[in-house]
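WARN no homologs supplied; continuing
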Amino acid sequence: MEIQLTVLNKLGLHARPAAEFVRCARKFRSEIHIHKDGEQYSAASILDVLSANLDCGAMMILRAEGPDAEKALGELAALMEEFKRQEEE
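OK structure emitted
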């Protein structure tokens, strides 16, 4: 399964939201990867997520493979929306 996401919060996935994103990804048994600009990054690795340069406006494809792939993608997409909402408060 895969979904396309756009980073909407102004600061992008900098240290704090990147760590929260990784914690969320690690909850699942599925293998989750970020695909951006022809590169693949593990969503369960803080170094990979930071290396992906997920700045505001960046588009990525999130792919999950495993028993809870659909739930994983749904929660990670919701988390990205939550980052934007938190920034607006």
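The domain at 2-88 is CATH 3.30.1340.10 (Histidine-containing Protein; Chain: A;).
OK
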